[in-house]
Amino acid sequence: MELLVFDLDGTLLNGEQQITEYTRDTLKLLQQRNIAYTVATGRTIHAARAVMQDTHFPLLHVYNNGVVIWNPESTDYIHHNHLTHAEIDAVLNAFSDQTITPFVFTIEPDGSHAVYHAPPENEVCRHYVSLFEANDSIQNKPLVSLHPTAEITNINALGSQVEIKAICDQIKDQDHLVVYTGGDMYKTDFHWLDIHHSASSKGGAVEMLKESLGYDRVICFGDSDNDISMFEIADEAYSPANALDELKAISTEVIGHHDQDGIARFLREYYSL
Fold this sequence. Notes:
Layout: E1 2-6, H1 8-12, H2 21-32, E2 36-39, H3 45-52, E3 61-63, E4 68-71, E5 76-80, H4 89-95, E6 103-107, E7 113-117, H5 123-133, E8 138-142, E9 151-159, H6 161-171, E10 177-183, E11 191-197, H7 202-213, E12 217-221, H8 228-233, E13 236-240, H9 245-248, E14 253-255, H10 262-270
Parallel strand pairs: 1-2, 1-12, 7-8, 12-13, 13-14
Antiparallel strand pairs: 3-4, 4-5, 6-7, 6-9, 9-11, 10-11
Helix pairs in contact: 2-10, 4-6
Protein name: Haloacid dehalogenase
GO molecular function, one term: phosphatase activity
InterPro entries: Cof, HAD-like_sf, HAD-SF_hydro_IIB, HAD_sf
């Protein structure tokens, strides 16, 4: 038995951050054929929910680049490698020299989600704060109230390329951290930053899924550097035409563009759906 694993942004989602009707229908066809699939994304659970609405993903989900494995049936967390307050001190110090707001995501003691942040420094940060405030599934809290025992899943930020690079340069020697960064595909003037524990990766989480769910093979789909680890452990790995060259180089095949239902069209041909 094989398990299909999809990244979201730049892969299963189009440029409007949507799962198209064509792709949604393709997933239904997979279900009818009893072909198993799930998602492994850099998004937090609350950010992924917004784009996965009306689409059935019954198996375990991988969030935060492998930090969190979540069971949608029981709503339990199967696994997560979190950062401690002490482990992010260097990160917060790096942000203090820039005009970027860090968003610190946590799993609270009662299992709920929270995001801690300082007052937003620019228009984009204010926009994201307003999105969080409108989301009932996550609590908004001031960064100064981040408690010493917080279970931190990841830290996100958006800013100019210069500011993001400056932060990366300051924390590059922190061995317990993994840092992903790149140009934002939805806001072209900005770069994004995602920081989490070095013990976590999509590849490691997908290996856990494969073993716990009892699958023999894994076929992965992704477009960016945070997908490299799962491509390395996959039996087959496919990247859309918009993927990074680095990922294309280790792909089984480069397939259609994410903004042209490339993944879904490939699946219909691959499985004769």
